[in-house]
Design goal:
Layout (H helix, E strand, L loop, with lengths): L1 H18 L12 H28 L3 E4 L4 H22 L2 H10 L1 H19 L7 H25 L3 H15 L12 E5 L7 H26 L13
Length: 237
């Protein structure tokens, strides 16, 4: 919690010193509209991640073992993931991204945010000494994810829809797959059949990109239909 407070203080200072703005510039207030965006983001990514789990179950003949429903553990996992997601979103899709959009334009700002998010995961996953192929894969997959979430921030001027997407992805995937410190919350893989090469590699890219690409398509449709993402003309750059 102290870490989040420090990040919020630094964000406020950056916005005030560079843009003469406060935290309202990144849509930090939990207004009804922002909460609706959060819930929409959460629902969108949960749907696509659930589809992904189903595809993998069929494609790899996964046999799932129930881990039971433990309310206390699920609550702890929820708190952990929302703190983790909020921390990363404030760093990569908060005040700094807002300033970059104003100074560089949204295209370069979103690209730089995505690239930094991808590189960050190389260190957070502890794979800095691994093969360049794996490092490149992680930067690409997490970078595309960061791009989609930064795009959502740009279109709403709020961190909430990205936070919903981030929390939904981490929480849903941790219900089925190993993760630290909370993983396989509801189910664990009892057995599965791996694909032969090159199909395993093809699937790895599909698995990594599917939720983000589908989410981006939905966000574009919501923006065009003036639902959730549309901005007032006065907000356009």
């Amino acid at each position: 919690m102290l870490g989040l407070l420090v990040i919020l203080l630094i964000s406020w200072g950056l916005l005030f010193l560079v843009e003469k703005k406060n935290l309202g510039a990144i849509g930090i207030a939990p207004t009804p509209k922002h909460l609706a965006q959060f819930l929409a983001g959460f629902a969108i990514i949960v749907i696509f991640c659930s589809i992904l789990v189903y595809i993998e179950t069929v494609l790899k003949a996964v046999q799932w073992e129930s881990k039971g429903f433990h309310t206390k553990v699920l609550f702890k996992a929820f708190i952990y993931h929302i703190k983790s997601a909020l921390t990363e979103d404030l760093v990569f899709r908060g005040a700094l991204l807002y300033v970059l959009i104003k100074r560089l334009g949204h295209r370069w700002a979103i690209f730089l945010s995505a690239l930094c998010f991808g590189v960050y995961h190389v260190f957070s996953y502890g794979i800095t000494t691994e093969r360049w192929v794996l490092i490149g894969y992680v930067i690409l997959i997490t970078g595309v994810t960061g791009y989609v979430w930064a795009y959502a921030f740009y279109k709403t001027k709020s961190i909430y829809i990205g936070l919903g997407l981030h929390l939904g992805y981490n929480l849903l995937m941790s219900c089925f797959y190993e993760s630290q410190p909370y993983g396989e919350l509801l189910f664990g893989e009892l057995a599965k059949t791996d694909l032969s090469e090159p199909y395993e590699t093809y699937y790895a890219f599909f698995r990594g990109l599917f939720p983000s690409v589908m989410t981006l398509l939905v966000l574009i449709l919501l923006n065009r239909s003036r639902l959730i993402l549309s901005k007032n003309k006065s907000e356009q750059e």
